[in-house]
Design a protein that fits this description.
The structure holds 2 protein chains of 2 kinds. Chain A is α/β, with parallel strands linked by helices. Chain A has helices at residues 37-50, 58-62, 75-78, 83-90, 107-121, 140-148, 164-178, 182-196, 210-215, 243-249, 287-295, 307-320, 325-328, 339-348, 357-363, 386-390, 394-409, 413-417, 420-425; strands at residues 19-25, 67-72, 98-101, 126-134, 218-220, 223-224, 233-241, 254-262, 331-333, 444-450, 456-464. Chain A is 37% helix and 15% strand. The longest helix of chain A has 16 residues, at 394-409. Chain B contains 1 helix and 11 strands. Chain B is mainly beta. The chains are: A alpha/beta, B mainly beta. Chains A and B meet through helix 6, helix 7 and strand 5 of A and strand 7, strand 8 and strand 9 of B.
Chain lengths: 465, 170
Protein backbone atom coordinates (compact mmCIF):
# COMPACT_ATOMS: atom_id res chain seq x y z
CA UNK A 1 0.00 0.00 0.00
CA UNK A 2 1.42 3.38 -0.86
CA UNK A 3 -1.63 5.52 -0.16
CA UNK A 4 -3.42 5.38 3.18
CA UNK A 5 -7.10 5.97 3.69
CA UNK A 6 -8.75 7.20 6.84
CA UNK A 7 -9.64 3.75 8.13
CA UNK A 8 -6.06 2.55 7.69
CA UNK A 9 -4.82 5.31 9.96
CA UNK A 10 -7.29 4.85 12.81
CA UNK A 11 -5.32 5.04 16.05
CA UNK A 12 -5.75 1.92 18.22
CA UNK A 13 -7.57 2.49 21.49
CA UNK A 14 -7.73 0.04 24.38
CA UNK A 15 -11.30 -0.42 25.59
CA UNK A 16 -9.83 -0.39 29.10
CA UNK A 17 -6.32 0.43 30.32
CA UNK A 18 -3.61 -2.25 30.38
CA UNK A 19 -0.93 -2.43 33.08
CA UNK A 20 2.32 -4.29 33.47
CA UNK A 21 3.03 -5.40 37.04
CA UNK A 22 5.96 -7.82 36.86
CA UNK A 23 8.84 -8.99 34.68
CA UNK A 24 11.11 -12.02 34.74
CA UNK A 25 13.94 -13.45 32.72
CA UNK A 26 16.54 -16.17 32.54
CA UNK A 27 20.11 -15.26 31.76
CA UNK A 28 21.19 -15.71 28.14
CA UNK A 29 23.92 -17.81 26.63
CA UNK A 30 25.04 -18.68 23.12
CA UNK A 31 24.88 -22.31 24.22
CA UNK A 32 22.87 -23.41 27.24
CA UNK A 33 23.22 -27.21 27.50
CA UNK A 34 22.72 -27.11 31.28
CA UNK A 35 18.96 -26.59 30.97
CA UNK A 36 16.11 -27.70 28.76
CA UNK A 37 13.99 -25.05 27.12
CA UNK A 38 11.02 -25.37 29.48
CA UNK A 39 13.40 -25.21 32.44
CA UNK A 40 14.64 -21.85 31.15
CA UNK A 41 11.04 -20.67 30.83
CA UNK A 42 10.47 -21.68 34.47
CA UNK A 43 13.40 -19.44 35.49
CA UNK A 44 11.69 -16.44 33.87
CA UNK A 45 8.26 -17.36 35.30
CA UNK A 46 9.63 -17.84 38.81
CA UNK A 47 11.42 -14.50 38.78
CA UNK A 48 8.24 -12.83 37.54
CA UNK A 49 6.13 -14.28 40.35
CA UNK A 50 8.64 -14.13 43.19
CA UNK A 51 10.90 -11.12 42.74
CA UNK A 52 8.70 -8.16 41.74
CA UNK A 53 7.36 -7.27 45.21
CA UNK A 54 3.85 -8.35 44.26
CA UNK A 55 1.48 -8.00 47.19
CA UNK A 56 0.28 -11.58 47.01
CA UNK A 57 1.93 -14.92 47.45
CA UNK A 58 3.44 -16.18 44.13
CA UNK A 59 0.96 -19.03 43.88
CA UNK A 60 -1.93 -16.68 44.58
CA UNK A 61 -0.74 -14.50 41.70
CA UNK A 62 -0.54 -17.57 39.51
CA UNK A 63 -4.14 -18.23 40.49
CA UNK A 64 -5.12 -14.91 38.88
CA UNK A 65 -3.74 -15.74 35.44
CA UNK A 66 -6.45 -16.47 32.91
CA UNK A 67 -4.66 -16.24 29.55
CA UNK A 68 -1.15 -16.74 28.17
CA UNK A 69 0.44 -15.20 25.10
CA UNK A 70 3.62 -17.02 24.06
CA UNK A 71 6.38 -15.93 21.73
CA UNK A 72 8.57 -18.32 19.77
CA UNK A 73 10.35 -17.29 16.58
CA UNK A 74 11.13 -20.49 14.74
CA UNK A 75 9.95 -24.07 14.97
CA UNK A 76 13.14 -24.95 13.03
CA UNK A 77 15.32 -24.04 15.99
CA UNK A 78 13.25 -25.75 18.68
CA UNK A 79 12.69 -28.70 16.31
CA UNK A 80 9.33 -28.97 18.03
CA UNK A 81 5.89 -27.93 16.90
CA UNK A 82 3.44 -26.80 19.59
CA UNK A 83 6.21 -25.96 21.98
CA UNK A 84 3.62 -23.68 23.60
CA UNK A 85 1.78 -26.71 25.00
CA UNK A 86 4.98 -28.15 26.46
CA UNK A 87 5.95 -24.89 28.15
CA UNK A 88 2.40 -24.23 29.36
CA UNK A 89 2.17 -27.68 30.91
CA UNK A 90 5.64 -27.36 32.45
CA UNK A 91 4.68 -24.05 34.08
CA UNK A 92 1.60 -25.77 35.53
CA UNK A 93 -0.92 -23.61 33.69
CA UNK A 94 -3.20 -26.28 32.21
CA UNK A 95 -6.16 -26.04 31.32
CA UNK A 96 -5.90 -22.28 30.76
CA UNK A 97 -5.98 -21.04 27.17
CA UNK A 98 -2.83 -19.90 25.39
CA UNK A 99 -1.69 -19.13 21.91
CA UNK A 100 1.64 -18.73 20.24
CA UNK A 101 2.59 -15.63 18.30
CA UNK A 102 5.08 -15.59 15.43
CA UNK A 103 6.33 -12.45 13.74
CA UNK A 104 10.02 -13.18 13.28
CA UNK A 105 12.31 -10.95 15.34
CA UNK A 106 9.26 -8.97 16.49
CA UNK A 107 7.70 -12.06 18.04
CA UNK A 108 8.28 -10.86 21.61
CA UNK A 109 6.71 -7.48 20.87
CA UNK A 110 3.79 -9.11 19.11
CA UNK A 111 3.28 -11.45 22.08
CA UNK A 112 3.09 -8.30 24.25
CA UNK A 113 0.59 -6.78 21.82
CA UNK A 114 -1.58 -9.92 21.83
CA UNK A 115 -1.34 -10.11 25.62
CA UNK A 116 -2.31 -6.45 26.00
CA UNK A 117 -5.24 -6.98 23.64
CA UNK A 118 -6.49 -9.83 25.81
CA UNK A 119 -6.60 -7.52 28.85
CA UNK A 120 -7.91 -4.48 26.94
CA UNK A 121 -10.76 -6.49 25.48
CA UNK A 122 -11.80 -8.00 28.77
CA UNK A 123 -11.00 -11.54 27.66
CA UNK A 124 -8.53 -11.64 30.53
CA UNK A 125 -7.85 -9.74 33.73
CA UNK A 126 -4.40 -11.20 34.13
CA UNK A 127 -2.27 -12.36 31.20
CA UNK A 128 1.13 -14.00 31.21
CA UNK A 129 3.32 -13.02 28.26
CA UNK A 130 6.31 -15.32 27.91
CA UNK A 131 8.76 -15.95 25.10
CA UNK A 132 11.78 -18.12 24.43
CA UNK A 133 14.25 -19.36 21.88
CA UNK A 134 16.78 -22.17 21.82
CA UNK A 135 19.22 -21.57 18.96
CA UNK A 136 22.01 -23.90 20.07
CA UNK A 137 20.84 -27.24 18.69
CA UNK A 138 22.56 -26.49 15.39
CA UNK A 139 25.90 -25.00 14.41
CA UNK A 140 25.97 -21.26 13.81
CA UNK A 141 26.10 -21.47 10.01
CA UNK A 142 23.11 -23.79 9.91
CA UNK A 143 21.36 -21.42 12.31
CA UNK A 144 22.17 -18.65 9.86
CA UNK A 145 20.51 -20.65 7.10
CA UNK A 146 17.44 -21.17 9.27
CA UNK A 147 17.20 -17.45 9.93
CA UNK A 148 17.68 -16.67 6.23
CA UNK A 149 14.52 -18.62 5.48
CA UNK A 150 12.93 -15.43 6.83
CA UNK A 151 14.09 -13.90 3.54
CA UNK A 152 11.95 -14.73 0.49
CA UNK A 153 12.55 -18.40 -0.40
CA UNK A 154 11.85 -17.94 -4.11
CA UNK A 155 13.96 -14.84 -4.72
CA UNK A 156 16.36 -14.15 -1.85
CA UNK A 157 17.31 -16.99 0.48
CA UNK A 158 19.56 -18.68 -2.09
CA UNK A 159 21.47 -15.41 -2.51
CA UNK A 160 23.24 -15.64 0.88
CA UNK A 161 21.63 -17.97 3.42
CA UNK A 162 22.96 -15.56 6.02
CA UNK A 163 20.79 -12.78 7.43
CA UNK A 164 23.58 -10.23 7.84
CA UNK A 165 23.82 -10.23 4.04
CA UNK A 166 20.29 -8.85 3.78
CA UNK A 167 21.08 -6.06 6.27
CA UNK A 168 24.44 -5.18 4.77
CA UNK A 169 22.99 -3.62 1.58
CA UNK A 170 20.79 -1.44 3.79
CA UNK A 171 23.88 -0.37 5.72
CA UNK A 172 25.69 0.36 2.45
CA UNK A 173 22.86 2.45 1.04
CA UNK A 174 22.29 4.29 4.33
CA UNK A 175 26.00 5.06 4.49
CA UNK A 176 26.07 6.45 0.95
CA UNK A 177 22.82 8.37 1.17
CA UNK A 178 23.55 10.08 4.48
CA UNK A 179 27.35 10.13 4.28
CA UNK A 180 27.71 8.07 7.44
CA UNK A 181 31.07 7.52 9.06
CA UNK A 182 31.49 3.85 9.87
CA UNK A 183 32.95 4.89 13.21
CA UNK A 184 29.42 5.87 14.23
CA UNK A 185 28.21 2.32 13.64
CA UNK A 186 31.23 1.02 15.55
CA UNK A 187 30.44 3.40 18.42
CA UNK A 188 27.01 1.77 18.78
CA UNK A 189 28.60 -1.68 19.12
CA UNK A 190 31.03 -0.35 21.71
CA UNK A 191 28.29 1.39 23.72
CA UNK A 192 25.82 -1.49 23.85
CA UNK A 193 28.39 -4.18 24.54
CA UNK A 194 29.80 -1.97 27.32
CA UNK A 195 26.36 -1.63 28.94
CA UNK A 196 26.04 -5.42 28.79
CA UNK A 197 29.00 -5.60 31.19
CA UNK A 198 26.66 -4.41 33.96
CA UNK A 199 23.96 -6.99 33.29
CA UNK A 200 24.03 -10.42 34.93
CA UNK A 201 21.81 -11.67 32.07
CA UNK A 202 24.19 -10.77 29.26
CA UNK A 203 25.85 -13.26 26.96
CA UNK A 204 28.49 -11.13 25.25
CA UNK A 205 29.55 -8.19 27.34
CA UNK A 206 32.79 -6.53 26.35
CA UNK A 207 34.92 -3.45 26.67
CA UNK A 208 35.79 -2.89 23.05
CA UNK A 209 37.20 0.07 21.17
CA UNK A 210 35.97 1.57 17.92
CA UNK A 211 39.23 0.45 16.29
CA UNK A 212 38.67 -3.12 17.49
CA UNK A 213 35.20 -3.15 15.95
CA UNK A 214 36.45 -1.78 12.64
CA UNK A 215 39.43 -4.13 12.49
CA UNK A 216 37.18 -7.13 13.18
CA UNK A 217 36.36 -9.91 10.79
CA UNK A 218 33.77 -8.97 8.17
CA UNK A 219 30.51 -10.91 8.36
CA UNK A 220 28.93 -9.26 5.33
CA UNK A 221 30.58 -6.11 4.05
CA UNK A 222 30.36 -3.48 5.56
CA UNK A 223 29.14 -5.22 8.75
CA UNK A 224 31.85 -6.52 11.05
CA UNK A 225 31.67 -9.33 13.58
CA UNK A 226 31.12 -7.07 16.62
CA UNK A 227 28.32 -5.25 14.77
CA UNK A 228 26.14 -8.35 14.64
CA UNK A 229 24.25 -10.10 17.43
CA UNK A 230 24.78 -13.79 18.08
CA UNK A 231 22.73 -16.96 18.44
CA UNK A 232 21.11 -16.95 21.86
CA UNK A 233 19.23 -19.18 24.31
CA UNK A 234 16.86 -18.06 27.07
CA UNK A 235 13.40 -16.91 28.11
CA UNK A 236 11.67 -13.72 29.34
CA UNK A 237 8.24 -12.95 30.77
CA UNK A 238 5.86 -10.10 31.63
CA UNK A 239 2.62 -10.00 33.60
CA UNK A 240 -0.19 -7.79 32.27
CA UNK A 241 -3.31 -6.85 34.25
CA UNK A 242 -6.48 -4.84 34.34
CA UNK A 243 -6.41 -1.57 36.32
CA UNK A 244 -8.19 -2.95 39.35
CA UNK A 245 -5.96 -5.96 39.63
CA UNK A 246 -2.80 -3.97 38.95
CA UNK A 247 -3.44 -1.78 41.98
CA UNK A 248 -4.14 -4.82 44.13
CA UNK A 249 -0.85 -6.40 43.10
CA UNK A 250 1.53 -3.48 43.28
CA UNK A 251 1.97 0.15 44.27
CA UNK A 252 4.05 0.72 41.14
CA UNK A 253 2.03 -0.42 38.13
CA UNK A 254 3.12 0.63 34.65
CA UNK A 255 0.75 1.54 31.81
CA UNK A 256 1.17 -0.27 28.49
CA UNK A 257 0.50 1.17 25.03
CA UNK A 258 1.54 -0.96 22.11
CA UNK A 259 1.04 -0.88 18.35
CA UNK A 260 2.44 -2.63 15.31
CA UNK A 261 3.31 -2.07 11.69
CA UNK A 262 4.47 -4.25 8.83
CA UNK A 263 6.16 -4.01 5.48
CA UNK A 264 7.30 -6.25 2.62
CA UNK A 265 9.60 -9.18 3.30
CA UNK A 266 11.75 -8.09 0.32
CA UNK A 267 13.36 -4.68 0.85
CA UNK A 268 13.46 -3.97 -2.87
CA UNK A 269 9.67 -4.25 -3.14
CA UNK A 270 9.17 -1.20 -0.88
CA UNK A 271 7.57 1.35 -3.15
CA UNK A 272 8.13 5.03 -2.56
CA UNK A 273 5.68 6.87 -0.33
CA UNK A 274 5.38 10.05 1.69
CA UNK A 275 6.69 9.84 5.24
CA UNK A 276 3.86 9.45 7.79
CA UNK A 277 4.61 12.31 10.17
CA UNK A 278 5.01 11.97 13.93
CA UNK A 279 3.39 14.58 16.20
CA UNK A 280 6.66 16.57 16.38
CA UNK A 281 7.30 16.66 12.61
CA UNK A 282 6.04 18.74 9.70
CA UNK A 283 6.24 18.41 5.91
CA UNK A 284 8.71 21.29 5.91
CA UNK A 285 11.16 19.22 7.97
CA UNK A 286 11.56 16.87 5.04
CA UNK A 287 11.64 19.19 2.02
CA UNK A 288 15.41 18.96 1.81
CA UNK A 289 15.39 15.21 2.35
CA UNK A 290 12.91 14.64 -0.49
CA UNK A 291 15.06 16.84 -2.75
CA UNK A 292 18.20 14.88 -1.83
CA UNK A 293 16.39 11.63 -2.47
CA UNK A 294 15.45 12.80 -5.92
CA UNK A 295 19.09 13.57 -6.69
CA UNK A 296 20.24 10.16 -5.48
CA UNK A 297 17.38 8.12 -6.93
CA UNK A 298 16.36 7.51 -3.32
CA UNK A 299 12.94 6.75 -1.94
CA UNK A 300 11.29 6.52 1.45
CA UNK A 301 11.51 4.17 3.23
CA UNK A 302 13.69 2.45 0.63
CA UNK A 303 16.76 0.67 1.96
CA UNK A 304 17.53 3.40 4.48
CA UNK A 305 14.52 3.33 6.80
CA UNK A 306 11.87 1.06 8.24
CA UNK A 307 8.32 1.95 7.24
CA UNK A 308 6.93 -0.59 9.70
CA UNK A 309 8.76 1.07 12.60
CA UNK A 310 7.51 4.49 11.57
CA UNK A 311 3.94 3.17 11.32
CA UNK A 312 4.11 1.46 14.73
CA UNK A 313 5.61 4.59 16.35
CA UNK A 314 3.00 6.77 14.62
CA UNK A 315 0.26 4.73 16.30
CA UNK A 316 1.91 4.01 19.67
CA UNK A 317 2.79 7.69 20.24
CA UNK A 318 -0.77 8.76 19.54
CA UNK A 319 -2.12 6.03 21.85
CA UNK A 320 0.22 7.09 24.64
CA UNK A 321 0.10 10.85 24.07
CA UNK A 322 3.80 11.15 23.20
CA UNK A 323 4.21 14.53 21.50
CA UNK A 324 7.94 14.88 21.21
CA UNK A 325 9.79 11.58 21.58
CA UNK A 326 13.19 12.91 22.61
CA UNK A 327 11.62 15.04 25.36
CA UNK A 328 8.78 12.72 26.39
CA UNK A 329 10.71 9.44 26.51
CA UNK A 330 13.32 8.81 29.19
CA UNK A 331 14.80 5.70 27.62
CA UNK A 332 14.49 3.41 24.64
CA UNK A 333 15.38 -0.17 23.83
CA UNK A 334 16.05 -0.49 20.10
CA UNK A 335 16.31 -3.75 18.18
CA UNK A 336 20.09 -3.57 17.62
CA UNK A 337 20.46 -6.97 15.94
CA UNK A 338 22.98 -5.08 13.79
CA UNK A 339 24.53 -1.69 14.47
CA UNK A 340 22.87 -0.37 11.33
CA UNK A 341 19.35 -1.29 12.52
CA UNK A 342 19.95 0.68 15.74
CA UNK A 343 21.10 3.71 13.73
CA UNK A 344 18.23 3.52 11.21
CA UNK A 345 15.67 3.31 14.01
CA UNK A 346 16.46 6.71 15.57
CA UNK A 347 14.87 8.41 12.57
CA UNK A 348 11.97 5.99 12.36
CA UNK A 349 10.90 6.63 15.96
CA UNK A 350 11.51 10.36 15.70
CA UNK A 351 14.30 10.72 18.25
CA UNK A 352 15.81 12.73 15.44
CA UNK A 353 14.73 13.65 11.91
CA UNK A 354 15.39 11.23 9.08
CA UNK A 355 18.81 11.86 7.64
CA UNK A 356 20.23 13.04 10.96
CA UNK A 357 20.56 9.67 12.69
CA UNK A 358 24.36 9.87 12.68
CA UNK A 359 24.27 13.30 14.34
CA UNK A 360 21.96 11.94 17.01
CA UNK A 361 24.42 9.21 17.99
CA UNK A 362 27.27 11.73 17.89
CA UNK A 363 25.30 14.10 20.14
CA UNK A 364 25.72 11.61 22.99
CA UNK A 365 22.04 11.76 23.90
CA UNK A 366 21.72 7.99 23.41
CA UNK A 367 24.16 7.39 26.28
CA UNK A 368 23.38 6.95 29.97
CA UNK A 369 25.86 9.73 30.64
CA UNK A 370 26.53 11.88 27.60
CA UNK A 371 30.28 11.45 26.98
CA UNK A 372 30.56 15.01 25.64
CA UNK A 373 28.84 16.86 28.48
CA UNK A 374 29.17 14.48 31.44
CA UNK A 375 25.42 14.97 32.01
CA UNK A 376 22.66 12.36 31.63
CA UNK A 377 21.80 11.60 27.98
CA UNK A 378 18.38 12.84 26.89
CA UNK A 379 17.07 9.41 25.88
CA UNK A 380 19.57 6.63 26.59
CA UNK A 381 19.26 3.57 24.39
CA UNK A 382 19.85 -0.07 25.16
CA UNK A 383 20.97 0.27 28.76
CA UNK A 384 20.11 -3.43 28.95
CA UNK A 385 23.10 -4.14 26.67
CA UNK A 386 20.70 -4.64 23.78
CA UNK A 387 20.76 -7.49 21.33
CA UNK A 388 24.41 -6.86 20.53
CA UNK A 389 25.58 -7.23 24.10
CA UNK A 390 22.97 -9.09 26.10
CA UNK A 391 20.59 -11.34 24.23
CA UNK A 392 18.58 -12.14 21.14
CA UNK A 393 16.82 -15.38 22.05
CA UNK A 394 14.37 -14.19 19.45
CA UNK A 395 10.93 -15.09 20.86
CA UNK A 396 11.96 -13.59 24.21
CA UNK A 397 13.61 -10.40 22.93
CA UNK A 398 10.67 -7.99 22.74
CA UNK A 399 9.49 -9.14 26.17
CA UNK A 400 12.96 -8.84 27.68
CA UNK A 401 13.17 -5.25 26.37
CA UNK A 402 9.84 -4.38 28.02
CA UNK A 403 11.06 -5.96 31.26
CA UNK A 404 14.20 -3.82 31.27
CA UNK A 405 12.18 -0.65 30.61
CA UNK A 406 9.67 -1.68 33.30
CA UNK A 407 12.41 -2.11 35.93
CA UNK A 408 13.94 1.24 34.95
CA UNK A 409 10.58 3.00 35.39
CA UNK A 410 10.21 1.46 38.84
CA UNK A 411 13.75 2.45 39.82
CA UNK A 412 14.78 -1.20 40.05
CA UNK A 413 17.77 -1.32 37.71
CA UNK A 414 20.13 -1.91 40.62
CA UNK A 415 17.93 -4.58 42.19
CA UNK A 416 17.91 -6.63 38.99
CA UNK A 417 21.45 -5.92 37.82
CA UNK A 418 23.53 -5.09 40.86
CA UNK A 419 22.73 -7.85 43.34
CA UNK A 420 25.83 -10.10 43.63
CA UNK A 421 23.55 -13.07 44.37
CA UNK A 422 21.86 -12.65 41.00
CA UNK A 423 25.23 -12.82 39.26
CA UNK A 424 26.01 -15.95 41.27
CA UNK A 425 22.70 -17.50 40.23
CA UNK A 426 24.04 -17.55 36.67
CA UNK A 427 27.53 -18.72 37.65
CA UNK A 428 29.05 -15.25 37.30
CA UNK A 429 30.78 -12.78 39.57
CA UNK A 430 29.56 -9.20 39.76
CA UNK A 431 32.33 -7.12 38.16
CA UNK A 432 34.40 -4.92 40.48
CA UNK A 433 33.80 -1.95 38.15
CA UNK A 434 29.99 -2.49 38.02
CA UNK A 435 28.07 0.74 37.49
CA UNK A 436 24.42 1.53 38.01
CA UNK A 437 22.66 2.53 34.78
CA UNK A 438 19.48 3.54 36.60
CA UNK A 439 17.93 6.64 35.06
CA UNK A 440 16.81 9.13 37.66
CA UNK A 441 13.01 9.54 37.81
CA UNK A 442 12.37 7.73 34.54
CA UNK A 443 8.70 8.15 33.67
CA UNK A 444 8.25 6.83 30.17
CA UNK A 445 10.17 4.39 27.97
CA UNK A 446 9.93 2.78 24.56
CA UNK A 447 10.71 -0.75 23.38
CA UNK A 448 11.03 -1.57 19.69
CA UNK A 449 10.58 -5.16 18.63
CA UNK A 450 11.61 -5.70 15.03
CA UNK A 451 11.55 -8.53 12.50
CA UNK A 452 13.37 -9.36 9.32
CA UNK A 453 14.65 -6.39 7.34
CA UNK A 454 11.70 -4.54 8.85
CA UNK A 455 8.82 -6.86 7.97
CA UNK A 456 7.09 -6.54 11.36
CA UNK A 457 7.68 -3.98 14.08
CA UNK A 458 5.94 -3.43 17.39
CA UNK A 459 6.46 -0.27 19.45
CA UNK A 460 5.54 -0.42 23.13
CA UNK A 461 5.39 2.70 25.25
CA UNK A 462 5.53 1.97 28.97
CA UNK A 463 4.55 4.71 31.38
CA UNK A 464 4.66 4.96 35.15
CA UNK A 465 1.05 5.03 36.32
CA UNK B 1 32.25 -15.34 -21.39
CA UNK B 2 34.35 -16.60 -18.46
CA UNK B 3 33.18 -15.30 -15.12
CA UNK B 4 34.80 -15.25 -11.70
CA UNK B 5 31.82 -16.38 -9.66
CA UNK B 6 30.62 -19.96 -10.16
CA UNK B 7 27.75 -21.97 -8.77
CA UNK B 8 28.31 -25.21 -6.89
CA UNK B 9 24.92 -26.75 -7.43
CA UNK B 10 23.19 -29.14 -9.75
CA UNK B 11 20.07 -28.22 -11.67
CA UNK B 12 17.03 -28.81 -9.49
CA UNK B 13 14.58 -31.37 -10.75
CA UNK B 14 11.34 -29.92 -11.99
CA UNK B 15 8.02 -31.59 -12.70
CA UNK B 16 5.02 -29.93 -14.26
CA UNK B 17 1.44 -30.00 -13.08
CA UNK B 18 -0.77 -28.14 -15.49
CA UNK B 19 0.97 -24.84 -16.13
CA UNK B 20 2.94 -24.88 -12.88
CA UNK B 21 6.53 -25.94 -12.31
CA UNK B 22 7.13 -27.92 -9.15
CA UNK B 23 10.67 -27.55 -7.82
CA UNK B 24 12.10 -30.61 -6.06
CA UNK B 25 14.16 -29.68 -3.03
CA UNK B 26 15.59 -32.85 -1.48
CA UNK B 27 16.45 -31.69 2.03
CA UNK B 28 16.65 -35.14 3.61
CA UNK B 29 17.25 -37.37 0.57
CA UNK B 30 14.58 -38.59 -1.81
CA UNK B 31 12.04 -39.34 0.91
CA UNK B 32 12.58 -35.94 2.50
CA UNK B 33 12.05 -33.90 -0.65
CA UNK B 34 10.02 -30.69 -0.53
CA UNK B 35 7.89 -30.19 -3.64
CA UNK B 36 7.66 -26.43 -4.03
CA UNK B 37 5.36 -24.99 -6.65
CA UNK B 38 6.15 -21.83 -8.56
CA UNK B 39 2.43 -21.57 -9.18
CA UNK B 40 1.46 -18.63 -11.38
CA UNK B 41 5.05 -17.36 -11.32
CA UNK B 42 6.17 -20.30 -13.43
CA UNK B 43 6.53 -18.10 -16.57
CA UNK B 44 9.24 -16.18 -14.74
CA UNK B 45 11.38 -19.26 -14.01
CA UNK B 46 10.67 -20.79 -17.42
CA UNK B 47 11.69 -17.46 -18.93
CA UNK B 48 15.06 -17.44 -17.15
CA UNK B 49 15.87 -20.91 -18.48
CA UNK B 50 15.18 -19.56 -21.97
CA UNK B 51 17.25 -16.40 -21.43
CA UNK B 52 14.33 -14.04 -20.97
CA UNK B 53 13.47 -11.81 -18.03
CA UNK B 54 9.73 -11.79 -17.53
CA UNK B 55 8.06 -9.17 -15.31
CA UNK B 56 4.44 -8.33 -14.56
CA UNK B 57 2.51 -5.09 -14.84
CA UNK B 58 -0.98 -4.05 -13.78
CA UNK B 59 -3.02 -2.91 -16.78
CA UNK B 60 -6.36 -2.49 -14.99
CA UNK B 61 -7.66 1.00 -15.82
CA UNK B 62 -9.55 1.00 -12.51
CA UNK B 63 -6.44 0.29 -10.40
CA UNK B 64 -6.14 3.21 -7.93
CA UNK B 65 -2.35 3.23 -8.20
CA UNK B 66 -1.43 1.95 -11.66
CA UNK B 67 -4.50 3.42 -13.44
CA UNK B 68 -3.97 1.05 -16.35
CA UNK B 69 -0.26 1.83 -16.68
CA UNK B 70 1.29 0.24 -13.59
CA UNK B 71 5.05 -0.07 -13.16
CA UNK B 72 6.75 -3.36 -13.84
CA UNK B 73 7.26 -5.69 -10.88
CA UNK B 74 10.37 -7.80 -10.36
CA UNK B 75 10.07 -10.22 -8.66
CA UNK B 76 6.81 -10.54 -10.55
CA UNK B 77 3.42 -11.05 -8.92
CA UNK B 78 0.47 -12.73 -10.55
CA UNK B 79 -2.04 -10.37 -8.91
CA UNK B 80 -1.87 -6.63 -8.36
CA UNK B 81 -1.66 -5.71 -4.65
CA UNK B 82 -3.51 -2.44 -5.29
CA UNK B 83 -6.59 -3.64 -7.24
CA UNK B 84 -6.30 -7.45 -6.85
CA UNK B 85 -6.73 -8.05 -10.60
CA UNK B 86 -4.41 -10.38 -12.53
CA UNK B 87 -1.31 -8.62 -13.85
CA UNK B 88 0.05 -8.95 -17.38
CA UNK B 89 3.37 -10.61 -18.24
CA UNK B 90 5.88 -8.55 -20.18
CA UNK B 91 9.46 -9.25 -21.16
CA UNK B 92 12.17 -6.85 -19.98
CA UNK B 93 14.23 -6.73 -23.18
CA UNK B 94 18.00 -6.59 -22.91
CA UNK B 95 17.86 -6.08 -19.11
CA UNK B 96 20.25 -3.42 -17.88
CA UNK B 97 20.46 -1.31 -14.79
CA UNK B 98 22.77 -0.01 -12.11
CA UNK B 99 23.87 -1.20 -8.70
CA UNK B 100 21.57 0.42 -6.14
CA UNK B 101 23.24 -1.30 -3.19
CA UNK B 102 25.41 -4.33 -2.55
CA UNK B 103 27.34 -6.45 -0.08
CA UNK B 104 30.36 -8.69 -0.49
CA UNK B 105 29.38 -12.11 0.83
CA UNK B 106 32.51 -13.76 2.19
CA UNK B 107 30.67 -16.61 3.83
CA UNK B 108 27.09 -17.76 3.59
CA UNK B 109 24.93 -20.09 5.62
CA UNK B 110 24.86 -23.87 5.27
CA UNK B 111 23.88 -25.04 1.79
CA UNK B 112 24.85 -21.86 -0.08
CA UNK B 113 25.08 -22.71 -3.78
CA UNK B 114 27.18 -19.71 -4.89
CA UNK B 115 30.96 -19.89 -4.49
CA UNK B 116 32.17 -17.26 -2.03
CA UNK B 117 33.23 -14.56 -2.11
CA UNK B 118 30.77 -12.77 -4.35
CA UNK B 119 28.75 -9.59 -4.51
CA UNK B 120 25.07 -9.75 -3.70
CA UNK B 121 23.66 -6.79 -5.62
CA UNK B 122 20.39 -4.88 -5.60
CA UNK B 123 19.81 -3.70 -9.16
CA UNK B 124 17.70 -0.77 -10.29
CA UNK B 125 16.55 -2.06 -13.69
CA UNK B 126 15.50 0.39 -16.36
CA UNK B 127 11.72 0.43 -16.61
CA UNK B 128 11.09 -1.55 -13.41
CA UNK B 129 9.54 -0.01 -10.29
CA UNK B 130 11.00 -2.37 -7.70
CA UNK B 131 14.67 -2.95 -6.92
CA UNK B 132 15.77 -6.45 -7.75
CA UNK B 133 18.17 -8.59 -5.68
CA UNK B 134 20.68 -10.83 -7.42
CA UNK B 135 24.38 -11.69 -7.59
CA UNK B 136 27.26 -10.35 -9.61
CA UNK B 137 29.58 -12.56 -11.66
CA UNK B 138 32.55 -10.17 -11.30
CA UNK B 139 34.73 -9.96 -8.19
CA UNK B 140 36.52 -6.67 -8.87
CA UNK B 141 35.76 -3.65 -6.63
CA UNK B 142 32.39 -2.04 -7.33
CA UNK B 143 30.43 0.98 -6.19
CA UNK B 144 26.82 2.13 -6.11
CA UNK B 145 25.89 3.39 -9.57
CA UNK B 146 28.02 0.90 -11.55
CA UNK B 147 26.20 -0.28 -14.66
CA UNK B 148 25.31 -3.94 -15.11
CA UNK B 149 23.54 -6.21 -17.56
CA UNK B 150 21.80 -9.54 -17.06
CA UNK B 151 23.33 -12.93 -17.79
CA UNK B 152 21.19 -16.08 -17.86
CA UNK B 153 21.85 -19.76 -17.18
CA UNK B 154 19.85 -21.47 -19.85
CA UNK B 155 19.07 -24.94 -21.19
CA UNK B 156 20.96 -27.72 -19.43
CA UNK B 157 22.86 -25.15 -17.30
CA UNK B 158 19.66 -23.81 -15.77
CA UNK B 159 19.20 -24.54 -12.05
CA UNK B 160 15.47 -23.73 -12.34
CA UNK B 161 15.81 -21.32 -9.41
CA UNK B 162 16.39 -17.60 -8.89
CA UNK B 163 20.09 -18.30 -9.48
CA UNK B 164 19.43 -18.48 -13.24
CA UNK B 165 19.78 -14.74 -13.58
CA UNK B 166 23.01 -13.01 -12.60
CA UNK B 167 24.58 -9.67 -13.45
CA UNK B 168 27.87 -8.61 -15.01
CA UNK B 169 29.54 -5.23 -15.08
CA UNK B 170 29.15 -3.38 -18.36
Amino acid sequence: MIEFHEGNLRVPRWTRPVYMVAAGTSDFRKRYPQKKLEELCMMAFRMLLEENNLKMDPLEVKGLINFCSYGEFADHFQDQLLCEAKVHDYLGLDLLPNFGVKTGGATGGSAMLAGAQSVASGYADCTLVLGWERMDEVKTWTGNYYISTAACKDFETRLARNYASYYAPMARRFQEMYDVDERVRAEIAVKNRRYACFSPFSQQPGNHTIEEVLEGEIVSDPLRFLECCAMSVGSSAALLCSEELAHKLTDQPVLVYTAGGSHTLRTGDRRPMRIPLLPNESEADYRELYADMEKQDGRWPGFESFGATRFAAYMAYRMAGVKNPVEDLDLVETHDAFTISDLQTYGDVGLTLYGREQDYVRSGDCYHINPHTGKPGKCPSNLSGGLLGTMHAVGATGIFQCGEVFWQLRGEYDKFHGDPKLWERYGKKKPADWQSLQIKDARRGLAISHAGVGSHVVCTVLEKA
Amino acid sequence: MAHDVKLKTKPSEITREGDAWILHFPRFGAEGTHYHTYGLLTPYFEGLAQGRLMATRCVNAKCPIGRGKGEMWLPPRADCPDCHQPMKWEEVKNPRGYIYSYTYVERGGTGLEIECPYYQVDVRIEGVGTIFKGYLLDRKPIKIGDKVRAVFRTGSDATNTCLDIAWELV
